Amino acid sequence: MSDLKTNPSLDEKEPTLSKEELNARRDEITAFYKDNIQHLEIQAEYETLLSTIEKARAERMQAQMFMSQTYADQKDGGLNPDSEEAVAFKQAMENAAMNVE
Q1: What one-character-per-residue DSSP string does 50-101 give?
Q2: Do 92 and 63 meet the contact criterion of CB atoms below 8 Å apart?
Q3: Whether this model's pTM surpasses 0.70
Q4: Confidence at residue 3, expressed as pLDDT on a 0 to 100 scale
Q5: DSSP run (H or E) holding 42
Q6: Alpha-carbon distance 16 to 25, whole Å?
């Protein structure tokens, strides 16, 4: 017994189309895609805007977390201004200020 299964619809011969029918079908498909391009462009713009918003939110959250950690460290005795954390914080704040403008 064979484990191979066949699709009955594929067993039937495919209809043969004339050259004119093939060209007509190709033109229909091309028109369909051209009609949908404007919708896809709008969707791409929408997705790009969502991505930009999510990136900005993530950067803002990261900056807020960094600031809250820095303030917590200051309460606990303060950071050395020359420490790696202080330098990174200053750099992050400068980068954030440049992105806002």
Answers
A1: HHHHHHHHHHHHHHHHHHHHHHHHHHTT---TTSHHHHHHHHHHHHHHHHH-
A2: yes
A3: no
A4: 61
A5: helix 19-75
A6: 13
